[in-house]
TrEMBL record:
One of its GO terms (cellular component) is membrane. The keyword ATP-binding does not apply. It comes from the Bacteria. It is found in: Membrane. The chain crosses the membrane at residues 7-32, 44-62, 82-100, 112-131, 138-158, 178-200, 220-237, 243-259, 266-287, 354-375, 382-400. It comes from Candidatus Magasanikbacteria bacterium CG10_big_fil_rev_8_21_14_0_10_42_10. Pfam families: Wzy_C (PF04932). The keyword Membrane applies. Residues 229-367 form the O-antigen ligase-related domain. Keywords: Membrane, Transmembrane, Transmembrane helix. Coiled coil: none annotated. It is a multi-pass membrane protein. This is O-antigen ligase-related domain-containing protein.
Length: 425
Protein backbone atom coordinates (compact mmCIF):
# COMPACT_ATOMS: atom_id res chain seq x y z
CA UNK A 1 0.00 0.00 0.00
CA UNK A 2 1.08 3.57 -0.56
CA UNK A 3 2.86 5.10 2.41
CA UNK A 4 1.72 8.67 1.73
CA UNK A 5 -1.71 8.47 3.51
CA UNK A 6 0.00 7.04 6.58
CA UNK A 7 2.55 9.85 6.63
CA UNK A 8 -0.26 12.42 6.49
CA UNK A 9 -1.99 10.70 9.38
CA UNK A 10 1.23 10.57 11.43
CA UNK A 11 1.80 14.30 10.88
CA UNK A 12 -1.67 15.11 12.21
CA UNK A 13 -1.29 12.62 15.05
CA UNK A 14 2.04 14.19 16.03
CA UNK A 15 0.51 17.69 16.06
CA UNK A 16 -2.40 16.48 18.19
CA UNK A 17 -0.12 14.66 20.62
CA UNK A 18 2.23 17.62 20.94
CA UNK A 19 -0.60 20.07 21.49
CA UNK A 20 -2.49 17.84 23.94
CA UNK A 21 -0.59 14.73 25.01
CA UNK A 22 -3.66 13.07 26.52
CA UNK A 23 -5.49 13.28 23.17
CA UNK A 24 -2.71 11.34 21.49
CA UNK A 25 -2.83 8.70 24.22
CA UNK A 26 -6.62 8.49 23.81
CA UNK A 27 -6.35 7.93 20.06
CA UNK A 28 -3.63 5.31 20.49
CA UNK A 29 -5.76 3.15 22.78
CA UNK A 30 -8.90 3.74 20.74
CA UNK A 31 -7.13 2.51 17.60
CA UNK A 32 -5.26 -0.50 18.97
CA UNK A 33 -6.45 -2.73 16.08
CA UNK A 34 -4.53 -0.51 13.62
CA UNK A 35 -1.57 -2.84 13.99
CA UNK A 36 -3.37 -4.65 11.17
CA UNK A 37 -2.54 -1.72 8.87
CA UNK A 38 0.97 -2.61 7.76
CA UNK A 39 3.47 -0.83 5.55
CA UNK A 40 7.23 -0.50 5.15
CA UNK A 41 9.64 2.36 5.50
CA UNK A 42 12.39 1.21 3.17
CA UNK A 43 13.34 -2.30 4.33
CA UNK A 44 11.71 -1.81 7.75
CA UNK A 45 8.18 -3.24 8.12
CA UNK A 46 5.95 -1.48 10.61
CA UNK A 47 2.31 -0.75 11.43
CA UNK A 48 0.12 2.27 12.11
CA UNK A 49 -0.08 1.29 15.78
CA UNK A 50 3.70 1.12 16.08
CA UNK A 51 3.99 4.55 14.49
CA UNK A 52 1.58 6.00 17.05
CA UNK A 53 3.45 4.31 19.91
CA UNK A 54 6.75 5.85 18.82
CA UNK A 55 5.19 9.30 18.39
CA UNK A 56 3.62 9.13 21.87
CA UNK A 57 6.91 7.91 23.35
CA UNK A 58 9.03 10.61 21.72
CA UNK A 59 6.63 13.45 22.51
CA UNK A 60 6.08 12.11 26.03
CA UNK A 61 9.82 11.85 26.65
CA UNK A 62 10.39 15.44 25.51
CA UNK A 63 7.53 16.81 27.60
CA UNK A 64 8.01 14.71 30.76
CA UNK A 65 11.72 13.89 30.93
CA UNK A 66 11.99 15.72 34.26
CA UNK A 67 9.90 13.00 35.92
CA UNK A 68 12.10 10.07 34.87
CA UNK A 69 14.26 9.78 38.00
CA UNK A 70 11.39 10.24 40.43
CA UNK A 71 9.14 7.77 38.58
CA UNK A 72 11.79 5.05 38.29
CA UNK A 73 12.77 5.34 41.96
CA UNK A 74 9.12 5.18 43.06
CA UNK A 75 8.49 2.20 40.79
CA UNK A 76 11.42 0.25 42.23
CA UNK A 77 10.72 1.23 45.84
CA UNK A 78 7.00 0.44 45.91
CA UNK A 79 6.89 -2.33 43.30
CA UNK A 80 10.26 -4.00 43.75
CA UNK A 81 9.32 -7.55 42.77
CA UNK A 82 7.50 -6.38 39.66
CA UNK A 83 10.47 -4.20 38.67
CA UNK A 84 13.00 -7.01 39.15
CA UNK A 85 10.77 -9.38 37.16
CA UNK A 86 10.47 -6.81 34.38
CA UNK A 87 14.25 -6.40 34.13
CA UNK A 88 14.76 -10.18 33.94
CA UNK A 89 11.97 -10.46 31.39
CA UNK A 90 13.41 -7.79 29.10
CA UNK A 91 16.95 -9.17 29.38
CA UNK A 92 15.64 -12.61 28.45
CA UNK A 93 13.69 -11.33 25.46
CA UNK A 94 16.81 -9.57 24.19
CA UNK A 95 18.90 -12.73 24.54
CA UNK A 96 16.18 -14.71 22.75
CA UNK A 97 16.60 -12.56 19.64
CA UNK A 98 20.03 -14.07 19.17
CA UNK A 99 18.96 -17.67 19.87
CA UNK A 100 16.24 -17.51 17.22
CA UNK A 101 16.27 -19.26 13.85
CA UNK A 102 15.47 -16.04 11.98
CA UNK A 103 17.16 -12.93 13.37
CA UNK A 104 15.05 -10.51 11.34
CA UNK A 105 11.72 -12.05 12.36
CA UNK A 106 12.87 -12.31 15.99
CA UNK A 107 13.93 -8.66 16.05
CA UNK A 108 10.54 -7.63 14.70
CA UNK A 109 8.72 -9.61 17.38
CA UNK A 110 11.09 -8.29 20.08
CA UNK A 111 10.34 -4.74 19.00
CA UNK A 112 6.55 -5.09 18.61
CA UNK A 113 5.63 -7.40 21.52
CA UNK A 114 8.15 -6.53 24.20
CA UNK A 115 10.12 -3.30 23.77
CA UNK A 116 7.47 -0.96 22.38
CA UNK A 117 4.75 -1.89 24.93
CA UNK A 118 7.28 -1.53 27.76
CA UNK A 119 8.50 1.86 26.48
CA UNK A 120 4.89 3.02 26.23
CA UNK A 121 4.34 1.91 29.84
CA UNK A 122 7.37 3.92 30.96
CA UNK A 123 6.43 7.08 29.07
CA UNK A 124 2.87 6.99 30.41
CA UNK A 125 4.33 6.45 33.87
CA UNK A 126 6.47 9.58 33.46
CA UNK A 127 3.40 11.50 32.26
CA UNK A 128 1.08 10.20 34.99
CA UNK A 129 0.39 13.67 36.42
CA UNK A 130 -1.12 14.84 33.13
CA UNK A 131 -3.17 11.72 32.37
CA UNK A 132 -6.48 10.46 33.69
CA UNK A 133 -6.39 6.67 33.59
CA UNK A 134 -10.13 6.24 33.25
CA UNK A 135 -10.81 9.07 30.79
CA UNK A 136 -7.64 8.87 28.67
CA UNK A 137 -6.94 5.12 28.63
CA UNK A 138 -9.87 3.02 29.87
CA UNK A 139 -12.57 5.01 28.03
CA UNK A 140 -10.97 4.58 24.58
CA UNK A 141 -10.43 0.90 25.37
CA UNK A 142 -14.14 0.57 26.20
CA UNK A 143 -15.04 2.32 22.94
CA UNK A 144 -12.67 0.09 20.97
CA UNK A 145 -14.25 -2.93 22.65
CA UNK A 146 -17.74 -1.68 21.72
CA UNK A 147 -16.73 -1.23 18.07
CA UNK A 148 -15.22 -4.73 17.99
CA UNK A 149 -18.35 -6.20 19.60
CA UNK A 150 -20.67 -4.46 17.14
CA UNK A 151 -18.68 -5.86 14.23
CA UNK A 152 -18.81 -9.35 15.76
CA UNK A 153 -22.59 -9.14 16.14
CA UNK A 154 -23.00 -7.88 12.58
CA UNK A 155 -20.80 -10.70 11.29
CA UNK A 156 -22.86 -13.25 13.19
CA UNK A 157 -25.94 -12.34 11.16
CA UNK A 158 -24.24 -11.68 7.82
CA UNK A 159 -20.91 -13.55 7.68
CA UNK A 160 -19.36 -10.36 6.29
CA UNK A 161 -15.55 -10.42 6.14
CA UNK A 162 -15.31 -13.78 7.99
CA UNK A 163 -12.77 -16.17 6.40
CA UNK A 164 -14.32 -19.36 5.01
CA UNK A 165 -12.29 -21.51 7.41
CA UNK A 166 -14.27 -20.06 10.33
CA UNK A 167 -17.66 -19.69 8.69
CA UNK A 168 -19.14 -22.15 6.21
CA UNK A 169 -16.32 -24.69 6.42
CA UNK A 170 -17.65 -27.39 8.72
CA UNK A 171 -20.58 -25.10 9.59
CA UNK A 172 -18.55 -23.54 12.43
CA UNK A 173 -19.93 -20.00 11.93
CA UNK A 174 -17.42 -18.27 14.20
CA UNK A 175 -16.99 -14.51 13.93
CA UNK A 176 -13.50 -13.04 13.62
CA UNK A 177 -14.01 -9.22 13.58
CA UNK A 178 -10.96 -7.33 12.30
CA UNK A 179 -8.48 -9.95 13.34
CA UNK A 180 -9.16 -12.79 10.93
CA UNK A 181 -9.56 -15.52 13.54
CA UNK A 182 -12.08 -15.99 16.39
CA UNK A 183 -9.88 -16.33 19.48
CA UNK A 184 -8.28 -12.94 18.86
CA UNK A 185 -11.66 -11.31 19.40
CA UNK A 186 -12.13 -13.06 22.75
CA UNK A 187 -8.58 -12.38 23.90
CA UNK A 188 -9.04 -8.65 23.30
CA UNK A 189 -12.55 -8.35 24.74
CA UNK A 190 -12.38 -10.62 27.81
CA UNK A 191 -10.18 -8.38 30.03
CA UNK A 192 -12.06 -5.28 28.87
CA UNK A 193 -15.40 -6.81 29.83
CA UNK A 194 -14.31 -7.59 33.39
CA UNK A 195 -12.75 -4.11 33.73
CA UNK A 196 -16.09 -2.68 32.55
CA UNK A 197 -17.85 -4.81 35.15
CA UNK A 198 -15.52 -3.49 37.87
CA UNK A 199 -16.08 0.11 36.74
CA UNK A 200 -19.86 -0.29 36.92
CA UNK A 201 -19.53 -2.11 40.25
CA UNK A 202 -17.48 0.73 41.72
CA UNK A 203 -19.97 3.29 40.48
CA UNK A 204 -22.76 1.67 42.49
CA UNK A 205 -20.76 0.26 45.41
CA UNK A 206 -21.29 1.95 48.73
CA UNK A 207 -18.01 0.53 50.03
CA UNK A 208 -15.93 1.97 47.18
CA UNK A 209 -16.13 5.76 47.25
CA UNK A 210 -13.39 6.28 44.70
CA UNK A 211 -12.30 9.63 43.33
CA UNK A 212 -12.61 9.12 39.59
CA UNK A 213 -10.32 12.06 38.86
CA UNK A 214 -12.62 13.21 36.05
CA UNK A 215 -15.55 15.57 35.66
CA UNK A 216 -19.19 14.59 35.94
CA UNK A 217 -19.72 14.38 32.17
CA UNK A 218 -16.62 12.21 31.75
CA UNK A 219 -17.80 10.01 34.61
CA UNK A 220 -21.09 9.38 32.85
CA UNK A 221 -19.40 8.69 29.51
CA UNK A 222 -17.07 6.12 31.11
CA UNK A 223 -19.98 4.58 32.99
CA UNK A 224 -22.30 4.36 29.97
CA UNK A 225 -19.52 3.00 27.75
CA UNK A 226 -18.74 0.32 30.33
CA UNK A 227 -22.41 -0.63 30.52
CA UNK A 228 -22.74 -0.86 26.73
CA UNK A 229 -19.64 -3.07 26.53
CA UNK A 230 -21.11 -5.32 29.23
CA UNK A 231 -24.17 -5.82 27.04
CA UNK A 232 -22.38 -6.33 23.72
CA UNK A 233 -19.02 -7.86 24.64
CA UNK A 234 -20.22 -11.23 25.97
CA UNK A 235 -22.38 -11.66 22.86
CA UNK A 236 -19.33 -11.12 20.67
CA UNK A 237 -17.37 -13.79 22.55
CA UNK A 238 -20.31 -16.20 22.36
CA UNK A 239 -20.48 -15.63 18.60
CA UNK A 240 -16.72 -16.19 18.38
CA UNK A 241 -17.35 -19.50 20.20
CA UNK A 242 -14.37 -19.01 22.48
CA UNK A 243 -14.77 -21.15 25.57
CA UNK A 244 -11.49 -19.90 27.01
CA UNK A 245 -12.66 -16.30 26.75
CA UNK A 246 -15.98 -17.06 28.43
CA UNK A 247 -14.32 -18.99 31.26
CA UNK A 248 -11.86 -16.13 31.71
CA UNK A 249 -14.76 -13.68 32.08
CA UNK A 250 -16.49 -15.96 34.57
CA UNK A 251 -13.24 -16.17 36.57
CA UNK A 252 -12.81 -12.39 36.57
CA UNK A 253 -16.42 -11.72 37.58
CA UNK A 254 -16.18 -14.46 40.21
CA UNK A 255 -13.11 -12.76 41.68
CA UNK A 256 -14.99 -9.45 41.74
CA UNK A 257 -17.83 -11.08 43.70
CA UNK A 258 -15.46 -12.86 46.07
CA UNK A 259 -13.63 -9.63 46.88
CA UNK A 260 -16.91 -8.05 48.01
CA UNK A 261 -17.92 -9.15 51.50
CA UNK A 262 -21.64 -9.04 50.72
CA UNK A 263 -21.41 -11.41 47.75
CA UNK A 264 -18.42 -13.55 48.78
CA UNK A 265 -20.09 -16.62 50.23
CA UNK A 266 -23.05 -16.74 47.89
CA UNK A 267 -20.72 -16.52 44.89
CA UNK A 268 -18.58 -19.35 46.28
CA UNK A 269 -21.74 -21.43 46.83
CA UNK A 270 -22.94 -20.77 43.28
CA UNK A 271 -19.51 -21.73 41.98
CA UNK A 272 -19.49 -25.03 43.87
CA UNK A 273 -23.05 -25.87 42.79
CA UNK A 274 -22.23 -25.03 39.19
CA UNK A 275 -19.16 -27.26 39.26
CA UNK A 276 -21.09 -30.15 40.76
CA UNK A 277 -23.81 -29.69 38.15
CA UNK A 278 -21.25 -29.67 35.35
CA UNK A 279 -19.76 -32.92 36.63
CA UNK A 280 -23.03 -34.75 37.21
CA UNK A 281 -25.77 -33.55 34.82
CA UNK A 282 -25.76 -35.77 31.70
CA UNK A 283 -27.16 -33.09 29.38
CA UNK A 284 -24.06 -30.96 30.00
CA UNK A 285 -21.71 -33.57 28.56
CA UNK A 286 -20.75 -31.39 25.58
CA UNK A 287 -19.66 -28.53 27.84
CA UNK A 288 -17.95 -30.98 30.18
CA UNK A 289 -15.96 -32.52 27.33
CA UNK A 290 -14.81 -29.09 26.18
CA UNK A 291 -13.84 -27.88 29.66
CA UNK A 292 -11.91 -31.05 30.46
CA UNK A 293 -10.12 -31.23 27.06
CA UNK A 294 -12.01 -34.30 25.87
CA UNK A 295 -13.20 -32.81 22.57
CA UNK A 296 -11.08 -32.43 19.43
CA UNK A 297 -9.90 -28.90 20.33
CA UNK A 298 -8.87 -30.07 23.79
CA UNK A 299 -7.02 -33.08 22.40
CA UNK A 300 -5.11 -30.83 20.02
CA UNK A 301 -4.08 -28.59 22.90
CA UNK A 302 -2.96 -31.53 25.05
CA UNK A 303 -0.90 -32.87 22.16
CA UNK A 304 0.57 -29.41 21.50
CA UNK A 305 1.57 -29.00 25.14
CA UNK A 306 3.17 -32.44 25.20
CA UNK A 307 5.15 -31.66 22.05
CA UNK A 308 6.25 -28.35 23.55
CA UNK A 309 7.44 -30.01 26.76
CA UNK A 310 9.52 -32.44 24.68
CA UNK A 311 11.10 -29.46 22.91
CA UNK A 312 11.83 -27.78 26.24
CA UNK A 313 13.45 -30.93 27.58
CA UNK A 314 16.08 -30.56 24.85
CA UNK A 315 16.33 -26.76 25.22
CA UNK A 316 15.55 -26.15 28.91
CA UNK A 317 17.44 -22.85 29.27
CA UNK A 318 17.01 -21.06 25.96
CA UNK A 319 13.67 -22.35 24.75
CA UNK A 320 13.01 -21.98 21.05
CA UNK A 321 13.89 -18.29 20.74
CA UNK A 322 11.67 -15.49 19.51
CA UNK A 323 9.57 -16.24 16.42
CA UNK A 324 11.09 -19.72 16.23
CA UNK A 325 8.55 -22.03 17.85
CA UNK A 326 6.77 -23.12 14.68
CA UNK A 327 10.10 -24.13 13.11
CA UNK A 328 11.79 -25.78 16.09
CA UNK A 329 8.67 -27.74 17.09
CA UNK A 330 8.61 -29.63 13.78
CA UNK A 331 10.75 -32.62 14.92
CA UNK A 332 8.53 -33.00 17.99
CA UNK A 333 5.17 -32.54 16.25
CA UNK A 334 2.83 -35.52 16.56
CA UNK A 335 -0.59 -36.49 15.29
CA UNK A 336 -3.82 -36.33 17.29
CA UNK A 337 -5.66 -39.64 17.27
CA UNK A 338 -3.87 -40.44 14.03
CA UNK A 339 -4.93 -37.16 12.43
CA UNK A 340 -2.35 -34.67 11.27
CA UNK A 341 -2.92 -31.11 12.55
CA UNK A 342 -1.33 -27.82 11.67
CA UNK A 343 1.61 -26.37 13.56
CA UNK A 344 0.61 -23.21 15.38
CA UNK A 345 2.78 -20.16 16.04
CA UNK A 346 2.65 -20.66 19.82
CA UNK A 347 1.61 -23.49 22.19
CA UNK A 348 -1.66 -21.91 23.36
CA UNK A 349 -0.65 -21.57 26.99
CA UNK A 350 0.77 -18.27 28.21
CA UNK A 351 3.41 -19.82 30.46
CA UNK A 352 4.61 -22.35 27.88
CA UNK A 353 4.58 -19.56 25.30
CA UNK A 354 6.78 -17.35 27.43
CA UNK A 355 9.08 -20.28 28.15
CA UNK A 356 9.61 -21.26 24.50
CA UNK A 357 9.87 -17.63 23.37
CA UNK A 358 12.12 -16.17 26.07
CA UNK A 359 13.71 -19.17 27.78
CA UNK A 360 13.74 -20.08 31.45
CA UNK A 361 14.95 -16.62 32.51
CA UNK A 362 12.08 -14.99 30.65
CA UNK A 363 9.53 -17.31 32.24
CA UNK A 364 10.93 -16.55 35.70
CA UNK A 365 10.80 -12.82 35.00
CA UNK A 366 7.25 -13.04 33.67
CA UNK A 367 6.03 -15.00 36.71
CA UNK A 368 7.74 -12.52 39.05
CA UNK A 369 5.98 -9.67 37.24
CA UNK A 370 2.59 -11.29 37.81
CA UNK A 371 3.35 -12.12 41.45
CA UNK A 372 4.61 -8.56 41.94
CA UNK A 373 1.36 -7.18 40.56
CA UNK A 374 -0.63 -9.36 42.95
CA UNK A 375 1.49 -8.03 45.84
CA UNK A 376 0.63 -4.48 44.75
CA UNK A 377 -3.03 -5.48 44.49
CA UNK A 378 -2.86 -6.83 48.04
CA UNK A 379 -1.52 -3.46 49.21
CA UNK A 380 -4.37 -1.78 47.28
CA UNK A 381 -2.09 0.36 45.17
CA UNK A 382 -3.61 2.24 42.24
CA UNK A 383 -6.74 0.90 40.63
CA UNK A 384 -6.16 -2.45 42.30
CA UNK A 385 -9.67 -3.84 41.86
CA UNK A 386 -9.70 -3.30 38.09
CA UNK A 387 -6.25 -4.85 37.77
CA UNK A 388 -7.15 -7.82 39.95
CA UNK A 389 -10.15 -8.94 37.91
CA UNK A 390 -8.37 -8.30 34.60
CA UNK A 391 -5.26 -10.18 35.73
CA UNK A 392 -7.34 -13.17 36.85
CA UNK A 393 -9.05 -13.19 33.47
CA UNK A 394 -5.67 -12.92 31.74
CA UNK A 395 -4.25 -15.89 33.64
CA UNK A 396 -7.31 -18.13 33.28
CA UNK A 397 -7.63 -17.38 29.56
CA UNK A 398 -3.88 -17.88 29.29
CA UNK A 399 -4.20 -21.48 30.44
CA UNK A 400 -5.58 -22.36 27.00
CA UNK A 401 -4.26 -19.53 24.84
CA UNK A 402 -1.60 -16.80 24.73
CA UNK A 403 -3.22 -13.44 25.56
CA UNK A 404 0.04 -11.51 25.12
CA UNK A 405 1.63 -12.49 21.80
CA UNK A 406 -0.12 -9.92 19.65
CA UNK A 407 0.51 -6.20 19.21
CA UNK A 408 -2.70 -4.97 20.81
CA UNK A 409 -2.68 -7.61 23.55
CA UNK A 410 0.87 -6.82 24.64
CA UNK A 411 -0.03 -3.12 24.95
CA UNK A 412 -3.19 -4.07 26.85
CA UNK A 413 -1.16 -6.22 29.26
CA UNK A 414 1.12 -3.30 30.19
CA UNK A 415 -1.94 -1.18 31.00
CA UNK A 416 -2.42 -3.38 34.08
CA UNK A 417 0.79 -2.44 35.92
CA UNK A 418 0.32 1.14 34.71
CA UNK A 419 -3.00 1.26 36.60
CA UNK A 420 -1.21 0.03 39.72
CA UNK A 421 1.71 2.43 39.70
CA UNK A 422 0.18 5.68 38.46
CA UNK A 423 -2.06 6.19 41.50
CA UNK A 424 -1.00 5.36 45.04
CA UNK A 425 -3.85 5.07 47.50
Amino acid sequence: MMIFPYLIYFIFFTLITWQRFSYGVFLLFLLLPTYLLRFSIGPLPTTVLEGMIWIVCIVGLIKHARHIEESVITLFRKHTLFTVGTLLFLIATTISVFTATDLRAAAGEWKAFYIEPFLLFLILLFAKDTLKIKADILLPLMLSGIATSLLAIYQHFTGWMVPWAFWGNGASYRVTTWYGYPNATALFLAPLIVIAMALVWQRFSREEKEDWGVGHVEQMIVFVSSGVLLLLGPLAIVYAKSTGGLIGIVAGVGMLLILNKKTRWISIAIGVISLLGLLSIPSLHIIREEVFFQDRSGQIRLSMWQDTLHLLQDRPLLGAGLASYDERIVPYHTTVNGEGVEIFHHPHNIFLTMYVNTGLLGLIGFVLMIIGMFFSIGKRYGYWLLVCVALVTFIVTGLVDSPYIKNDLSVLFWVLPLMLVTRQE
